[in-house]
Design a protein that fits this description.
7-stranded mixed β-sheet, 6-stranded mixed β-sheet, globular
Length: 248
C-alpha cells in the first residue's frame, strides 16, 4: 500500500508580452516546434542531485516534485516542495538527493520573480505535459463562494501549484472526495477555493482571486502527468471561466 510523506525530458517556459510582435513570433515558433527558451530556467543532473540555472539573480526558486519510489517492496509516493533563495547571486539553485534521482519522478522549478518554469524527469520516464482547460480557473468560485476556485475533472488525486510572478506561490494536495475537495460531494470532480491554498516558503497568504498572468500547474499523483494554464483576464462576458493563455 502506498504511503506518503512531505520532506519534475526538460520543458522551458518564460513570460512573453501578449498581443505583441514578440508574442506572434513565439506562436509561429510553436507551430514549427522551435520555441526558444527566452531566458527560462533549465534543470540538469549533477553528482549531488539537481541544479537549476537561469533563476533571477538573488531571487526565489520553488522546487516541486512527486516521485514513486521503492525503498522496500511497496511504492512510496514522495512529495517534495521547497523554496530556495539564490543567496550567492549566480542565478543557480541546487536540490540535493542523497539516494540519487528517483527513476519515476517529475520535477518542476519555478522562478518566482518571473513566473517562468522548467520541468525535468529521468530520460527513461520523461515529462507528459498538457494544457489545463480554461474552465479549470473559475471566477467567483463558480457559485461556491466569493473566492475564485480551481476545478479539475480529469484526475482523482492531484497537487496544484499557483504562482503569481513577483509575489509568491501556493500549493494544495487534493483528492476527489477528500477533506480539501469542496465540490459538495460531486463524484469525478475536484474543486476548491484558491484562498485555502498553503503558502510556499516566504509567500504571503493565498489570494482570493486570480490575477492576469497567474500560472497554474496541476500534477496527477498517480500517473505523474503535468498540466498547465496561464490566466488571462478579464473572463469572456457571460461565463465564469477565465480564459487560458500560454507561457512560452
Amino acid at each position: 500500500m502506498a504511503k506518503s510523506e512531505n520532506p519534475l525530458p526538460t520543458t522551458r517556459r518564460s513570460n512573453i508580452p501578449r498581443f505583441s510582435s514578440l508574442a506572434l513570433f513565439a506562436l509561429a515558433c510553436f507551430l514549427f516546434d522551435a520555441i526558444p527558451g527566452w531566458g527560462a530556467p533549465t534543470i540538469a543532473v549533477n553528482k549531488k542531485g539537481l541544479v537549476a540555472q537561469g533563476i533571477t539573480s538573488g531571487g526565489r526558486a520553488i522546487w516541486w516534485s512527486v516521485a514513486h519510489e521503492r525503498p522496500d517492496s511497496f511504492v512510496t509516493i514522495v512529495h517534495r516542495l521547497e523554496e530556495q533563495i539564490d543567496t550567492d547571486l549566480d542565478g543557480s539553485v541546487s536540490f540535493p538527493l542523497e539516494g540519487g534521482l528517483p527513476d519515476t519522478s517529475v520535477w518542476v522549478v519555478v522562478d518566482v520573480a518571473t513566473g517562468s518554469y522548467a520541468t525535468f524527469a529521468p530520460p527513461d520516464f520523461g515529462v507528459t505535459e498538457t494544457p489545463l482547460p480554461p474552465e479549470s480557473a473559475q471566477a467567483g468560485g463558480a457559485g461556491r463562494g466569493s473566492a475564485d476556485a480551481f476545478l479539475e475533472a480529469a484526475h482523482p488525486m492531484i497537487e496544484v501549484l499557483l504562482v503569481r510572478a513577483g509575489q509568491g506561490a501556493w500549493e494544495l494536495r487534493v483528492g476527489d472526495g477528500g477533506d480539501t475537495d469542496q465540490d459538495g460531494g460531486i463524484e469525478g470532480e475536484i474543486s476548491f477555493a484558491i484562498d485555502g491554498m498553503a503558502p510556499v516558503g516566504t509567500s504571503p497568504l493565498a489570494p482570493a482571486h486570480y490575477a492576469d498572468g497567474d500560472l497554474l500547474l496541476s500534477l496527477d499523483i498517480d500517473h505523474l502527468e503535468l498540466s498547465s494554464l496561464v490566466v488571462i483576464l478579464p473572463p469572456p462576458p457571460g461565463t465564469a471561466a477565465i480564459r487560458a493563455g500560454v507561457r512560452r
